[in-house]
């Protein structure tokens, strides 16, 4: 089957894409609307987004808008679609590689809703994380505090800060926004932030969740990257550990979830990916609660989850991203009813095959060497 390397603006959504039941009701509804042509009125707005993105790009190319250099080398990570694409595990992987090379990395993010407040991903990454609506301000602050390399999180569309290595994440299970589709459309008609051709700005494409993607989509991504003359590095999201929210020092192997009754709790863009991971570990999902992405948990939510877990005789399992918000609430409201059932978090780590691991590590090493004193 021949696959065009370029994604047209119209979308083709397969009718039979496997989905976890409740979290994908909205996606199924959107697919149905698209197939019936009900979202055509949004096409002009998508064209406006396309024009704005191209004008922004040309403004930087012609020097009408200025790029600012940080005092230290910068590695940027981002994506082209709205929603999760596996950026945070990649940022953590890059941070660890920088440390292995003897550097002192700092992660710079825009902050929650652009107000400078640390977002969920920044909290998850832990120390040496700086947030500011103007990333160059945060980068300079991090350098002043001793950072020797900056990692820009979710910064592919942010071009005001010069970068020495530009990486773009593409979720192999939904490269252009919709699961299983080889075609994409711009917001608000589709899920793409800018045209797929914008990926040419990258130095490399990181395909995430390759272990969950059909072969046809992987071949399609490879064709796109050949067309753009970019290296495609394939990665997988592998469960790394399970830790207790009430006692973070207590960790166990992911295999301990085999056969265990769990209530899955998540506030992420793609809860179905989390559910698939749990099922792949052999966990029995007897209940699940999917909150909106970046949801701020409240005490009543905790009690509702605890009540459901007690009635189902199950453990509560959340994502590592949600654990950073749930743990303080648990510590502040520790009661017998709340902690009767175990509260656990599943930690995910990014992994590459040996060749791609060597390639990306070499890119990072080159950036650090070129700027070493």
Concise structural overview:
With 373 residues, the chain is an alpha/beta fold. The protein contains eleven helices and twelve strands. Strands 1, 2, 3, 4, 5, 6, 7, 8, 9, 10, 11 and 12 form a twelve-stranded mixed sheet that branches.
Distance between the termini: 51 Å
Largest sheet: 12 strands, mixed
Average pLDDT, rounded to a whole number, is: 85
CATH superfamily of the largest domain: P-loop containing nucleotide triphosphate hydrolases
Query: How many individual β-strands?
Result: 12
CATH topology of the largest domain: Rossmann fold
Task: Please tell me about this protein's structure.
- The chain is α/β, with parallel strands linked by helices and 373 residues long.
- 35% of the residues lie in helices and 20% in strands.
- It has 11 helices and 12 strands.
- It has helices spanning 25-35, 43-61, 87-100, 120-125, 135-144, 215-228, 271-280, 299-312, 320-332, 336-339, 354-370, and strands at 74-79, 105-109, 129-131, 149-153, 165-171, 204-208, 232-244, 251-252, 261-266, 284-290, 315-319, 343-352.
- Strands 1, 2, 3, 4, 5, 6, 7, 8, 9, 10, 11 and 12 form a 12-stranded mixed beta sheet that branches.
- α6 links the parallel β6 (204-208) and β7 (232-244).
Topology:
Elements (H helix, E strand, L loop, with lengths): L24 H11 L7 H19 L12 E6 L7 H14 L4 E5 L10 H6 L3 E3 L3 H10 L4 E5 L11 E7 L32 E5 L6 H14 L3 E13 L6 E2 L8 E6 L4 H10 L3 E7 L8 H14 L2 E5 H13 L3 H4 L3 E10 L1 H17 L3
Parallel strand pairs: 1-4, 1-5, 2-3, 2-4, 5-6, 6-7, 9-10, 9-11, 11-12
Antiparallel strand pairs: 7-8, 7-12
